[in-house]
Amino acid sequence: MYPILKVENLIKKYGNKIVLSGISFELYPSDILGIIGPNGAGKSTLLYVLLGVVSPDSGKIYYFGEDFLKNRNQILYKVSFASQYISLPYSLTIEENLKVFAHLYEILEVDKKIDELLNLFRLFNKKKTLTRTLSSGEMMRLNLARAFLNDPAILLLDEPTAGLDPEYIKYIRDLFKEFSQKRKLSIILTSHQLGELEKIITKVLLLKEGKTLAYGDLTELFQKFRVSTLEELYFKVFV
C-alpha cells in the first residue's frame, strides 16, 4: 500500500526563525494522525504548508503519489480543511454559505448534498439562519459541514472540537472514526484536548519549536516511552 500523503524534510523559515525543521511523515488510507505540541510548535504552520497556503523553503510533499507543487489545484479537489479560525461570510445563511463552496467544488445535486450534511452535523433546522447569529460551536459544525462537501480523501483539521459541547464532541469523534473506517478517509488534526484526541488517533507527530520529537503509531509510542495515556506522553516529552 502506498502512502496517500508523503512529507519529506519540510523546512520553513520566517526571517531567521525556523518554524519547521526537517519534518517528515507518511499518511495511509484510514490513518488518523494527531499533531501535538505546545503553543508555537509549528502545528498550524504545518497544516498551512500542507494546504499550499504557505510555501516551504525546502522539502517535498506528495499527495496520492503526485508532487503537490506541480499538481496543487488538482490535488486540492480531494483535500479539505476545517478550523475554528476560519470565518465564513456573516451576511449569508448557513445554506447560502454551503452553496457558495459547493459551486467552487462543482458539486452535483447541490441541494441534496447540503441537506445530507446539515443533517449529519445537526444544523438542518438552522439552514435559513444567518451565519452571524451562530454560536462558536455551531460555526465549527458549519465549517465541518463545508469541509465534507467535496467528499475528501484527506481532511486537515485545526482544533475541530473547539467550542463544541461534550455531547457534540463525542458525536463528531465517532463520526470521524466511522468515516475513516468505512470510507478510508485519512485525517490530520491538531487539538489540545488530549483525552479526546487519544480516543480517535492512530498515529502521533510530536512537535516542539518546529522539530519532530517523536512520530509513529500511538501504541508503539506508548510502549517506547513507557506511558499509558496521551497526557502522560505529552508531559514526558514536553515538560
UniProtKB/TrEMBL annotation:
Claim: ATP-binding is one of the keywords in the record: yes
Alphabetical list of Pfam families matching this protein: ABC_tran
Keyword annotations: ATP-binding, Nodulation, Nucleotide-binding, Transport
InterPro entries (alphabetical): AAA+_ATPase, ABC_transporter-like_ATP-bd, ABC_transporter-like_CS, ABC_transporter_ATP-binding, P-loop_NTPase
GO terms, molecular function: ATP binding; ATP hydrolysis activity
Residues annotated as domain ABC transporter: 5-234
CDD domains, alphabetized: ABC_DR_subfamily_A
Family note: Belongs to the ABC transporter superfamily.
Name of the featured protein: ABC transporter ATP-binding protein
Source organism: Thermodesulfobacterium geofontis
Lineage: Bacteria, Pseudomonadati, Thermodesulfobacteriota, Thermodesulfobacteria, Thermodesulfobacteriales
